[in-house]
Write a structure and sequence with these properties.
Blueprint (H helix, E strand, L loop, with lengths): L5 E4 L2 E3 L2 E3 L4 E2 L3 E2 L4 E3 L2 E4 L4 E4 L7 H8 L8 E5 L5 H4 L2 H7 L4 E5 L3 H8 L6 E4 L4 E3 L4 E6 L9 E5 L4 E5 L20 H12 L3 H11 L6 E4 L9 H12 L12 E7 L5 H14 L4 E7 L5 H10 L2 E5 L9 H7 L11 E8 L5 H11 L9 E4 L4 H19 L22
Parallel strand pairs: 8-9, 9-10, 10-11, 15-16, 17-18, 17-19, 19-20, 20-21
Antiparallel strand pairs: 1-2, 2-7, 3-6, 4-5, 7-8, 12-13, 13-14, 14-15
Helix pairs in contact: 6-7, 8-12
The structure holds MU-OXO-diiron.
């Protein structure tokens, strides 16, 4: 047979698929040399487990490899570390062929599973951190790692081999049939790119997941995409820890709340407003406000700044009934970071109608920021009184940041407590 399974540990096999032609994954991720959909089979004395499946188009390859290491009537366990279709495409057919198998999924995966299979009549067991399943001389232990990068995600640890089936965590879109990290080409770029686009928005969850993973003995990490990490597996865990650390934690005082103000100005009016907002915010003890002209900077460092900031303010003129493009460009770049629950606000000078401020506020609410203070709008050139309003606006924002504003404003975005989901 052409599609051979690959032994990765005693009685543990890679039974996944290579997709070298893929160039764009889930619309947003570029894949310079394709990807792999990694699935695995673990043989015990009394049962066989399949860990994840593959994208539907690659089901034939998956079954061809699986059939070389197990009979369908031996399969007692199917573990789904993550229900996204690139890992569950072959699941319905696998369940049909292996009727003895029971599914093991995270608690949060239950509703997704029913939606995926369009059935309520399913033989599954929801599992949490520390739960185990025994295959006879082989024990799978589950680690609940939500939001890495979906609510349902979990990792599965094969105790006897110190082998972590990590799902998307520690994965990357990199296709090389030699499979193992000490044999494939240099995939560091893909590893970092994958983290930045898939895991970065959930870095608090990454840190929580690492708290579970780091104490484990790790001889091998078998992710759901890209190379299998058998050479120095812990270095990849350490790299995740570095990537998930706050970027500026040595720069800003723990006590200071940071407010970053971005503006763009056609005739200097919105710029003068921005300076007044900054001055007002700085009047509040414990607030560190920074001002940036969007005409003078690259987007990427600003995204880093926003990730670390406690509050974000945008100043824009209104041109043809809209905020200006550099601001929308920056806002459209925020999918890679978490901005949920940060303070958001907008202001700007206008000539005719001044829609930019409310449009920006709507966008900020859409990104699940808190927008407790209505933005200041000024027609054309700000007067001294209007600049005073801007300073007051800045002080109000500073008070909200430091918790000194007694007035409690319920923002609709607070009703949605789960982070947004990226595709991976
Ligand atoms: Fe590889 Fe999130 O699916």
């Amino acid at each position: 047979m052409s599609e051979a399974p690959v032994s990765i540990a005693p009685d543990v096999f890679w039974i996944g698929a290579l997709d070298p032609q893929l160039r764009v994954f889930d619309v947003i991720l570029r894949t310079a040399n394709g990807t792999t959909y990694n699935a695995y089979c673990v043989r015990g004395e009394t049962g066989v487990a399949v860990i994840d499946t593959v994208k539907a188009e690659y089901a034939d390859t998956f079954f061809e490899r699986l059939e070389q290491v197990a009979r369908y009537d031996e399969i007692t366990v199917i573990v789904l570390n993550h229900l996204e279709p690139d890992h569950t495409g072959a699941l319905p057919e696998l369940m049909r062929r292996a009727p003895r198998a029971r599914l093991y999924i995270s608690v949060k995966a239950q509703t997704m599973l029913k939606g995926l299979l369009k059935s309520e009549d399913l033989a599954y067991t929801p599992v949490d951190t520390g739960d185990t399943v025994n295959l006879g001389g082989r024990t799978l232990t589950f680690l609940n790692t939500p939001f890495l990068h979906w609510p349902d995600t979990q990792c599965t640890y094969l105790n006897e081999e110190a082998l972590l089936f990590s799902g998307d965590v520690f994965g990357c879109h990199f296709c090389d049939g030699r499979l193992f990290n000490d044999r494939v080409g240099d995939f560091r770029f893909s590893f970092e790119y994958y983290y930045q686009h898939i895991m970065r928005p959930f870095r608090e969850h990454v840190r929580a997941g690492l708290d579970l993973i780091e104490p484990l003995r790790l001889d091998l990490i078998a992710p759901a995409h890209g190379p299998i990490l058998r050479d120095a597996p812990r270095s990849y865990v350490q790299r995740y820890r570095q990537l998930a650390a706050p970027l500026l934690h040595n720069e800003a005082s723990d006590r200071a709340k940071t407010l970053v103000i971005f503006y763009i100005s056609s005739y200097g009016n919105t710029a003068r407003m921005a300076q007044a907002v900054r001055d007002g915010a700085e009047e509040i003890d414990g607030v560190r406000a920074s001002l940036y002209d969007l005409q003078g900077g690259e987007v990427t460092p600003f995204v880093d700044l926003i990730e670390e900031a406690d509050g974000i303010v945008f100043g824009s003129p209104t041109i043809n009934g809209d905020a200006v493009k550099p601001i929308w460009d920056l806002l459209s770049s925020l999918a890679v970071v978490s901005v949920k629950d940060k303070l958001g606000a907008a202001f700007g000078s206008y000539g005719w109608t001044g829609e930019a401020v409310s449009m920006l506020e709507d966008r900020l609410r859409g990104l699940k920021l808190r927008v407790p203070v209505t933005g200041v709008r000024v027609k054309l050139i700000p007067t001294e009184e209007e600049l005073d309003q801007c300073r007051l606006f800045g002080r109000q924002l500073g008070k909200h940041l430091t918790g000194r504003n007694a007035r409690r404003v319920i923002d609709m975005s607070e009703l949605f407590k789960e982070p947004h989901h990226a595709q991976g």
